[in-house]
């Protein structure tokens, strides 16, 4: 495998940022690794970080490079800071960046497929929200999305934060009036409803969460909603686990297996 830290300028954000990229490499002599066969254009997993992290975190906390070594897929890990994969009310256009510019740049820099069936997105916590948001809002680009311990019911969650809490102010900078988040393009439930009513393709969805995770309630609410609609090809898994990297390192292997079904 090849691992590349790519620094580049974003026209959308107006500043330099980074993405980390894993590319398949056909190898015969690398000890402990099976290299995949070279393809002209590689299927790609866009792998998203959580609120406190950046584009390097999946490589630092999991064995993602080893897990994809024999699968023949590339992995693109962007940096969106604390922007919640959202065009911020007071800040930067992180959703436009990750859903448009990042993909175009990654496909121009590296041998990545632009076919919908070859493009997937996954993430943890904030990145789980981002993964489902990208797939539901841009279903023509992604054939499958996976959320690991995702912040999925944001419209309810943000209103539970005390007004004097610094996180409340941060979310207001991101989403604007928090009472208007429900039913907006930043509400996953609303995005799913819009997609169901449209003729656009429906992405496959995978969702998992530990039963001791503080976001478990969010995940149960979204699970109930999706299952009631009975429209999506939907997989849900739960079991013992909290909001930590041991759980996510284990579950990303399940995601990769699910993607390749």
Automatic annotation (TrEMBL):
Pfam families given in the database record: Esterase
Domain of life: Bacteria
GO molecular function: acyltransferase activity, transferring groups other than amino-acyl groups; hydrolase activity
Swiss-Prot/TrEMBL keywords: Hydrolase
Protein name, as recorded: S-formylglutathione hydrolase FrmB
